[in-house]
Amino acid sequence: MRENAKFHNGEPVTAEDVKFSFERYRGASHELIKDRVAAVEALDSRRVRFRLKAPWTDFLTFYATASGAGRVVPKKYAEQVGDEGFKKAPVGAGPYKFVSFTPGVELVFEAFDQYWRKTPSVKRLIFKVIPDETTRLAALQRGEIDIVYSIRGELAEELRRTPGLTLKPVVPQGPWWIYFPEQWDPKSPWHDPRVRRAASLAIDRKGIDAAITLGYSKTTGSIIPYTFEYFWQPPEPVYDPARAKQLLAEAGYANGFDAGEHYVDSSYSNFGEAVLDNLLAVGIRAKLRPLERAAFFEGYSNQKFKKGIVQAASAAFGNAATRLAAFVVKGGPYAYGSDPEIDALFQQQAAELDHKKRAAILYKMQQLVSERVIYAPLMQLAFINGVGPRVGESGFGLIPGFAYTGPFEDITEKTS
Question: Domain residues of the chain, as ranges?
Fold first, then answer.
C-alpha cells in the first residue's frame, strides 16, 4: 500500500481494509472472481496477498478494472455505520469526498486536500441530474453548468455553433450492439443465422453516426473495443438492405416478421429509433421499449428480456477475455445462451500462460462470435460533450477510452 494513502476520515488505507473490501464486494463478476480466490491475507499494514486456487492471468484485470472489486473502503467505519449508513455517508480515498446526495437532483463533492496523488485545484464539484438533452444544453449556454455530457444530433450542431462553448467528442471503449436472445430457441426466427445476418446488413451505421454523433463514432464489427488487449479485427460491417431482404426470403420470411419489443436504455431512444427504422425497411418489425437505465441493465443482466431484441453497450474496462466472459460465455450475466465450442475455448484460454497461444485462442473465439452472428455490432458511439468558457482543463480524453471527465483532480478553471 502507498505509505501516504488516506481515507477521507483521516485514517490510513491498510491491507486489512483491502481484505475487508474484497470480501464485502457483491458487484459485477463477484462470483467469478471470488470462486477463483482461495484466500486473502493481510501480511502487515501495507502488504496484502491474494492466493488463487489455480493460475489465472486475468485476476488483476478483473480485480482492478473489469469490476468494482478493487474499490477500497475503511473497514472500521463501514462496520461501525453498517451498509445503510455507508450508503448515506460513504467514505473513500479518492481526490474528492462526499458532501451530499439528493436523488434525481444532484451529487456534491469537495476536494480532499490529503489525496496522495495531488491536491485538486477545483474545490467543489456538483453533478446535476438533467435527463433531457435540450435542457442540458440550455443550462450550459446560460452558464448554469460548466461541463455537459452526451449532446447529440441537431443539438450537438447547435453546441458547436455557440460562441464560447467547445465541442469535446470522445469515443469511449463502449461498443454498441444488437443482441438476439431468442437465437437459442429453435422455434424463433432468430435461431436462423441468416435472419441475424439480415438484421446486421439492414443497419446503416454510417448514416446513423452522421445524424446522431456528427460522424465522430467508429463503426465496428465486434463487441470488443478495438483498444482492448487480445482484440481480433473482424470484417467491416456492410450496409446492404437488398441482400438483407434476400437472406430473409431464403430463411422463409419473404414478408418479414414481427420481432416483438426492442429494449433500449431510454437515454438512447433516438439511437434505438434509427436502428428500428432500418430493420423495418427490410421487414423486421419491432416496437421500441425504452427503459430507465437502472431498470434496463437490471432486466438485461437478470435475463428478463428473453423475447424480442436488446440494443445495448458496455464501456467496462478489461480485455477481450473479460468482455467475452460477461456477454458470450456460459454463465455470463448477459449471455442468454452459449455456444459449446466457444465455451470450451474460453476454459482453454483461461489456463493458458503462454501469451501468444492465449491470444490465438481468444482470436478464434471472437472469429466464431462474428461468423455465427451471435451479435450484430453497431459502433463505438461517440460521446459528444460540451465545455463552457470557465473551464481550463476539462479532463476529456485524459484517460484513454473513458467517456467522461477524469481524473477529477486534473480538472482546472481558467485563470483571469
Answer: 15-88, 96-171+382-410, 175-380
